[in-house]
Amino acid sequence: MAKVHPIVEQFDSQLSRLRSSQATSTSSLLKQTLTSLKDLYTSVDAVLQLPKNQQAIAQDVHSKWTEEVLDRSLKLLDICSTSRDVLVQSKESLHDIQSVLRRSCSGELNITSEVAQYLNTRKSAKKLIKKSLKNVKDIEQTNKNNAIESMLKDVNTITLDILKSVLSYLGGSKLESQKSKWSLVSKLMQKSDNKEESTTSNNFDDVDATLESTIRQKNKNGVENMRSQMTKLESEIQSLDEALDSFC
Asked: What InterPro entries does its record include (predicted)?
């Protein structure tokens, strides 16, 4: 029996860990998963650099399966780009609200237009996310004809599932309810036995709910709580965006 190259063993181990991941849908765990995914791609590059694989790639460079793998990779980059667009838009709208809050005094609160703009941004973002999630059906797997193709398609599959979980989290709880349709997403979103993790809410949902209440009831109370929620969400957005940037 041929000995497996250490680099290949490392790749297999990383892929296995990602497949078996079970965690709640928190931003910190999503960031951790994206970091692990980045490490997986580093291993993929190392495997592809092995002499025998370089020969195989050179022979099949114009084959149909290489074109399919490239096409799927480009579609995954589009999904990644959508995620980052949502984060950037949300961050910009949050800045507008925070700017008004910093200028407010004596309990006065007049952020109606900024809140409306943020909620409109979230509404547009959710539509964009839903469209992107529907389009993932175009990234379907075909038969695996050789070891390299099998490896790359496995990586595409795990990447797709992870990006689905990111999009679902960014969209909020309603989108997260679709998680049962996706194998890895279901695992990533599965409730933990840890009580603290299981009660962790989606920070996007928290801010959405607070701002919707503010604009509906013209509530002038709870400004500090609002600031705290938005600061927390802004930090979360920054963290996720950095993780996506390093990967995409």
From this structure: BPS1_pln
